[in-house]
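Reopening this ticket.

The earlier resolution said the output was attached, but the attachment link was broken on my side. Pasting everything inline this time so it's all in one place.
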Amino acid sequence: MTSHILVVDDEPTLVATIKYNLEREGYRVMSAADGAEALEIARAERPALIILDLILPGLPGLEVCRLIRQEMRMPILMLTAKADEIDKVTGLALGADDYMTKPFSMRELLARVQALLRRAELPAPQEDVLISGDLRIDLQRRQVYRKGEALALKPKEFELLLYFMRHRGRAFSREDLMNGVWSYEFGGDSRTVDVHVSWLRQKIEDEPAKPTRLITLRGMGYRFDG
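Inline output:
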């Protein structure tokens, strides 16, 4: 089945270019020029993926991302012209799956789209529960519990913890984690991994500044000891 993609941006030339390239790859493409229209289309059409600019007239892109993530689970790829890292971090915290900073190549955009769609279509894992000490992941509910209490994890925090728990004791570089969790084919900003590890430590470590589970490997990356 052909994937339906929603492109949200108020730059007509960029939208036309993205639409042209996506349609060449066989995707069906819709577009919206502002946040309110994007929400209306997303709710009515339920696209397979949303490409969302952060700077929009009316409703800002970050608010659109937050509202969509409350209701729907399709991947969101953010576009931003801002160099400020806080916008990227905020977008990821609100539930976006990936981001690209303008200007970008269409080749890389297509690769990111393909990776996100592939990941969204992966079959549900066969195991029902993973346990590590006082941590328990309920795969059916997509819920993590610590000492019996449910943890409020962001989507990528959940996926990162799940990846670590499935590969306990194994050393990972940041690039390994980008490929395994974010499925980047063209690399990415490894600070994304550091930010998500920091968030996870706040929730699963007794002393986040002195982690005993998510161990930093100097000059390499991380290891989950559980």
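Reporter confirms the inline version is readable. The chain has a mean pLDDT of 88. Residues 137 and 162 are 8 Å apart (CA to CA).
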